[in-house]
Design brief:
- The chain contains 2 helices and 38 strands.
- The chain has helices at residues 2-6, 10-22, and strands at 45-46, 50-57, 60-66, 69-71, 80-81, 85-89, 107-112, 117-122, 126-127, 130-131, 135-139, 144-145, 157-163, 166-171, 175-176, 179-180, 184-188, 202-203, 212-217, 223-228, 232-233, 236-237, 241-245, 251-252, 273-278, 284-289, 302-307, 319-322, 328-333, 338-342, 346-347, 361-362, 366-369, 391-395, 398-402, 407-408, 411-412, 416-420.
- Helices cover 4% and strands 37% of the residues.
- The protein has 422 residues and is mainly beta.
- A 4-stranded antiparallel sheet has the order 7-8-11-12, with no helix packed on it. Strands 19-20-23-24 form a 4-stranded antiparallel sheet, with no helix packed on it.
- The radius of gyration is 20 Å and the shape is globular.
- It comes from Actinomadura meridiana.
- Keywords: Signal.
- This is PKD domain containing protein.
- Pfam families: DUF5122.
- Residues 1-20 form the signal peptide.
């Protein structure tokens, strides 16, 4: 493998450069209806650890997290060693034998590249024995590390989004792309070099270490939303969430809210912000949280919709759905639904305190919300709770789910599954 990688030709690098610069943005997937509550039967099983990230590269589903063993669906299948990353064919569930990377730490985020490439980010330092830092690019057809991509990020990356030639990363790092960058950066998707125009000052953590926990970018690459432990961005008050207007000269938006300023359970969570996602048309985004059963006076343990085009301080959510004290970790917006995952027991439960209050509905571990009203839809496949759903990813074929448990839709599905559109 090492000689092959070392001999990466100038021609192949040039091809990567063209596709990275001109390829279509990895825009969010729109779906015309809610997915089936019956998972497909052929997804492989992850036998240990947690699935934390999923990306669909052509017909390959790339799965990342912290795990060591995987197995195809069905009886009598052989257990395979896979080090925190593997891929399978979405059409038949066959685990790839060409893509067998060795990643020496947790994969927290995956993003589709162009062609057969995929970006990975997390807490690892090497991939296939090569020093990469915590962000790298791999070719899924050959297992090849992209040696020309050198973001050189010096610490943990927890979130990542690619839009065309831009790769946005967030975490608790202090250097990225050859420059000083605190917790958030935009690097070139081909070279990994940090964008000189994108240099946010993210400061004053409410608790613990300064970090950007999650970020979301609209499909047009015009708005970025970040969340995390910070309370100021570019010297302006932004408690745990901020919007950035993008383009050639990114700037902090006037959009601001005090809705996430409440402490919630500060002793347990340095930040209670969790997943975020833009709608496929970019008109709104959703935010899910943990934080404790504090009810409708805060946005702890809730899902909320926010309108993208609004400006100014004092912003309020369009709607909020509370779990009544259980964590939501992830969200995926498809237009037909706002999917949420965590270890929640109920939704529509603003007055519950670790119990179902008036109007509460049972939605164990995974649910779909009405994008207009925020109320829980009837879709209720259920899953075993555990820590919760870390990854919800929409694809043209359905909704992919990654977690730490093995029961999904009343069936055995080891830590990864998919609800089909048909």
């Amino acid at each position: 493998m090492r000689p092959f990688i070392a001999c990466l030709t100038a021609t192949s690098l040039a091809a990567f450069a063209v596709t990275a610069a001109t390829g279509a943005a990895s825009a969010d997937i729109a779906q015309s209806k809610v997915v089936s509550a019956n998972p497909v039967s052929n997804t492989p099983n992850v036998l240990d650890g947690t699935v934390r990230a999923i990306a669909v590269v052509g017909n390959l589903v790339v799965v990342g997290g912290n795990f060591e063993q995987v197995r195809e669906a069905g009886s009598g299948k052989k257990t395979l060693k896979r080090h925190n990353l593997f891929a399978y064919d979405i059409r038949n569930g066959k685990i790839s034998t060409a893509f067998v990377p060795k990643v020496d730490g947790t994969v927290h985020a995956l993003q589709v590249g162009t062609g057969a490439w995929v970006y990975l980010a997390g807490t690892f330092k090497t991939v296939n024995g090569r020093k990469t830092g915590t962000v790298a690019a791999l070719k899924t057809t050959t297992n090849q590390v992209h040696t020309g991509f050198k973001p050189n990020v010096n610490y943990r990356v927890t979130t990542m989004v690619r839009r065309g030639s831009h790769l946005y990363i967030g975490g608790s790092f202090t250097k990225a792309g050859g420059k000083s960058r605190g917790a958030v950066a935009r690097v070139d998707a081909l070279t990994g070099v940090a964008d000189n125009a994108f240099n946010l000052s993210v400061t004053k953590p409410r608790s613990g270490t300064l970090k950007v926990y999650k970020l979301a970018v609209d499909p047009a690459d015009s708005r970025l939303v970040i969340n995390g432990t910070f309370t100021e961005v570019n010297g302006k008050r932004r408690p745990q969430i901020a919007m950035i207007n993008l383009g050639k000269k990114p700037a902090l938006s006037t959009w601001a809210t005090e809705s996430y300023a409440a402490a919630c359970n500060l002793n347990a969570f340095d930040t209670y912000m969790r997943g975020m996602d833009f709608s496929p048309d970019g008109k709104y985004f959703t935010v899910v949280t943990t934080g404790g059963p504090y009810g409708p006076t805060t946005l702890c343990d809730s899902a909320a919709r926010w309108e993208s085009s609004r400006t100014g301080t004092g912003q309020k959510p369009t709607w909020v759905n509370w779990t009544g004290g259980d964590t939501l970790l992830s969200t995926a917006v498809t237009g037909a639904a706002v999917y949420v995952g965590g270890h929640q027991r109920w939704l529509d439960n603003p007055y519950g305190r670790d119990r179902p209050g008036p109007g509460a509905v049972s939605r164990p571990g995974i649910a779909a919300l009405n994008p207009t009203t925020g109320k829980a839809l009837s879709w209720n496949p259920t899953r075993t709770l555990g820590h919760g759903v870390e990854a919800l990813v929409a694809s043209p074929k359905g909704l992919l789910v990654g977690s730490d448990t093995d029961q999904l839709g009343h069936e055995y599905h080891g830590r990864v599954g998919m609800f089909p559109l048909s």
